[in-house]
């Protein structure tokens, strides 16, 4: 085995983790007796997390890095939750004593002053901890329910299969095959086909989405429990990591979700066949705008089925969210499950973020601010693990870079100039100013690339020297 290097830093300087006195667990629930290099990795990771520091870990390929990350980080998370619970109990008892004291002191004061003073006495930290603990409790109950209902479905399927065999035992094999396929389709849908048709006539999804604030589910999703964001460069690396979690002892009690782009997670074949991330994003968002428009009279059903995505319905999405939290799956498995439950995995996983303890996501989703915010990812108070971090600088460069060719600049300059000439008198002064600014920028870029401007009457000619043309 090679050597592993550890280091940890914080805004105030470098820390040698070896000398920091932190209580380290005896065991990390590693699936087998860990080598020294793995044990060292987990211990240092645990210390860095406990101290809230930035840790930089370097370990050669084949040293069980992923499993060490999983066991080190998840062990810390489980211990952290326990410590939170204890802290909450202590804070609550202090709070009770405090309010008793306040009560005594304020006995002579009018009621409204007593109420106000009591409210002021509520410790913000205790409130936060309490919210998180309640969210965890609700989640655990829900996942238990989802997990215990699963075998029943299987049993139901077996009964159906047996009845089918008995009923069609003498039928011709072609007919039997066809019927079996139909039965399988109905079973995998999890609900009868016509139910979807009936739901199509209702435009209540967005109404109920709005009402979500009142439901338990939304209460749960509003509280973000402490979590680990694990981020890697490619989807295959993320899938590999998720498969390692599945094999680990933490697989049974850790809600894990994988995030991916619409291109990887969309199950609407009409949209997916557009085959380009930006086109898929645009089409999906366009369909949501259609969904938000109020249908008029007889047009209702036609518009619903033609303009909206049939997989973007609240109930199936929430069911898929629960199933995703209850059973760990990589993106391929999520897509498969989404198809079976007729629910969009892209939106189901986004709904699941607040309740997940581990979120596996690609670099772009974490590092691009707008994407991060649109997904509802909150980094404050959470752990971020960046795997293969040597790719980080290049990825950040790619995310915030765009390539524009000389011909695109020329085209933009020409069209904007024509627009300005034609509407000059109708444009507001401010807009005209912005257009001029854009034209100035475009002309500067063009000149930078070696372009020359030539004006003849109303026409502008732009020439590029061949060796500088891009
Ligand atoms: S809602 Fe989901 S399935 Fe439908 S188009 Fe958007 S990404 Fe695809």
Automatic annotation (TrEMBL):
Compartment annotation: Nucleus
Cofactor list: [4Fe-4S] cluster
Bias (Basic and acidic residues): 288-300
GO biological process: establishment of sister chromatid cohesion
InterPro entries listed in its UniProt record: DinG/Rad3-like, Helic_SF1/SF2_ATP-bd_DinG/Rad3, Helicase-like_DEXD_c2, P-loop_NTPase, RAD3-like_helicase_DEAD
Region described as Disordered: 288-313
Swiss-Prot/TrEMBL keywords: ATP-binding, Coiled coil, DNA-binding, Helicase, Hydrolase, Iron, Iron-sulfur, Isomerase, Metal-binding, Nucleotide-binding, Nucleus, RNA-binding
Domain named Helicase ATP-binding: residues: 24-439
Major place of residence: nucleus
Keyword Cell wall biogenesis/degradation recorded: no
GO MF annotation list: ATP binding; DNA binding; DNA helicase activity; hydrolase activity, acting on acid anhydrides, in phosphorus-containing anhydrides; iron-sulfur cluster binding; metal ion binding; RNA binding
GO cellular component: nucleus
Chain coiled-coil ranges: 122-149
Gene3D superfamilies: P-loop containing nucleotide triphosphate hydrolases
Protein name: Helicase ATP-binding domain-containing protein
Natural source organism: Paralvinella palmiformis
Organism ancestry: Eukaryota, Metazoa, Spiralia, Lophotrochozoa, Annelida
